[in-house]
Write a structure and sequence with these properties.
Layout (H helix, E strand, L loop, with lengths): L3 H15 L3 H9 L7 E2 L2 E2 L6 H13 L5 H7 L3 E10 L4 E9 L5 H12 L3 E4 L4 H13 L4 E3 L3 H4 L16 E7 L2 E5 L6 E3 L1 H8 L9 E4 L6 H19 L9 H9 L9 H4 L6 H12 L10 H14 L4 H23 L5 H20 L4 H22 L6 H21 L5
Antiparallel strand pairs: 1-2, 3-4, 5-10, 6-7, 6-10, 7-8, 8-9
Helix pairs in contact: 1-2, 1-15, 3-4, 4-9, 4-13, 6-8, 10-17, 12-14, 13-14, 14-17, 15-16
Protein name: Butirosin biosynthesis protein H, N-terminal
Pfam family, one: DUF4872
InterPro entries: BtrH_N, DUF4872
Length: 424
């Protein structure tokens, strides 16, 4: 019989090798018949993308019959975005990729998604830490779970280094509290408890989303409401990705492809990485961003494809199932790009991938109980990243790598531009 330790090791190995999410890798290794877990009256529904999973978890715990793919579609489905950040305080460089509709606007996305689904909600913003903490406590004591947006570093359980404090976070569900702290659902299968003072500080650290909180009311989601939400989401997705913005719409991929091979632009990769500084971090952030092994859920094209399959039946539009197949192919293109950026054939990269997967698996499977394992993996991960950055500093020629990534991005851009024309 396979022990729990052996099972976890096999799941982590599969995640690192294939780039699959914890849920998908676990289903392949252990089968999908395992029952969902709970914490008191709260049932963990899992999830793939933080924003859509948070809403889905609250609705499922209310008894609503709704899936994460349809929630994701109601919010406009997929998006596009690229930013290269350069930080002087630790000489690091990171690539931020946006894969959800309006990925840069948490509050706008929440509002339109909930409105389309017909879910009543209250949005609260409190400038003071104590007032925000008291408001959250009052909602939880009344049995109302809240969607909040804490800083990842400050919450602690993702085991991020101090250099990433204030770099932002993603939505999680706070569903109860006690003398030990606030209990969170972050798409996993076990409770995550964060001490109250630490959690208060994490909520206050997110800048423009300081102490933001959404409290969802009881919703009665009918099939007709879901169908209309799906229609609006499809229209929104097509319009959003047809926009001309080269930062927050499909042209972002084309712009990034050009910057990978340009030799004149100050933000072009041959110029930015002429000294090779932080190159391993940048390549890892591509892999983390595009693959579900990372914190944010990956490129989301498979989640969107699942939504299109559901919408095909809901709206009686068989052509959407054909579009779903195309987006699964595009998901494969993103996987190949991630593999090219951080190939497992390079031993240093393989180890970084394994450690990244170990942290994700510990958080998803064990929550707070997995903290020691996640902390040990994180200690090794950040040491391995530093070693890889130093190693790549001696790389003689980056141009072939950048040219390959550029070509792959160009293919993705054309594929997605063609695919969105079939949505409306």
């Amino acid at each position: 019989m396979t022990s729990k330790k052996q099972l976890k090791a096999r799941i982590r190995a599969r995640m690192a090798k294939t780039g699959e999410s914890y849920t998908t890798a676990r289903a392949h290794v252990a089968g999908s018949a395992s029952s969902s877990s709970s914490d008191g009256g709260w049932r963990f529904a899992g999830g793939r993308h933080p924003s859509s999973a948070a809403i889905t978890s609250v609705l499922v715990n209310q008894g609503a019959a709704v899936s994460e793919p349809l929630v994701f579609l109601a919010g406009g489905g997929i998006g596009a975005g690229y930013i290269l950040w350069e930080f002087q305080h630790d000489a690091s460089r990171h690539v931020v990729l946006g894969f959800r509709n309006q990925w840069q606007y948490h509050d706008r996305w929440m509002a339109k998604t909930l409105t389309r689904l017909g879910v009543p909600f209250d949005e609260h913003r409190t400038s003071g830490v104590r007032a925000a903490s008291d408001r959250l406590a009052a909602e939880l004591d009344a049995g109302r779970p809240c969607v909040v947006l804490p800083d990842r570093h400050r919450t602690g359980y993702w085991q991020l280094p101090d250099a990433l404090e204030g770099h932002g976070g993603h939505p999680v569900v706070a569903y109860r509290r006690d003398e030990d702290g606030v209990y969170l659902d972050d798409r996993g299968q076990a409770p995550i408890c964060v001490p109250r003072e630490r959690f208060d500080a994490a909520r206050a650290r997110v800048g423009s989303y300081k102490n933001v909180m959404h409290v969802l009311g009881e919703a009665k989601i009918t099939e007709a409401a879901l169908a209309e939400a799906a229609r609006e989401g499809l229209r929104d997705c097509a319009a959003h990705l047809s926009a001309t913005s080269d930062s927050f719409s499909l042209p972002a991929w084309r712009k990034w492809a050009r910057l990978l091979v340009d030799t004149r632009n100050a933000k072009a990769w041959p110029k930015v990485f002429a000294d090779r500084r932080g190159l391993a971090d940048a390549l890892l952030s591509i892999w983390e961003g595009a693959e579900p092994v990372g914190i944010d859920g990956g490129n989301l094209r498979d989640l969107f494809a699942d939504a299109l399959d559901e919408a095909a039946a809901l709206l009686d539009r068989p052509s959407l199932a054909e579009s779903a197949a195309r987006f699964r192919e595009i998901r494969g293109l993103w996987h190949e790009l991630a593999e090219a950026a951080l190939p497992a054939e390079v031993p240093e990269f393989a180890r970084i991938r394994e450690l990244t997967a170990a942290i994700k698996e510990s958080v998803m499977a064990d929550g707070t109980a997995g903290g020691p394992q996640a902390a040990q993996a994180a200690k090794e991960l950040w040491a391995a990243r530093a070693t890889a950055n130093a190693s790549l500093a001696t790389l003689p020629d980056t141009l072939p790598l950048f040219a390959d990534l550029s070509s792959r991005l160009g293919t993705i851009y054309e594929a997605e531009r063609s695919a969105i024309t079939t949505l409306t």
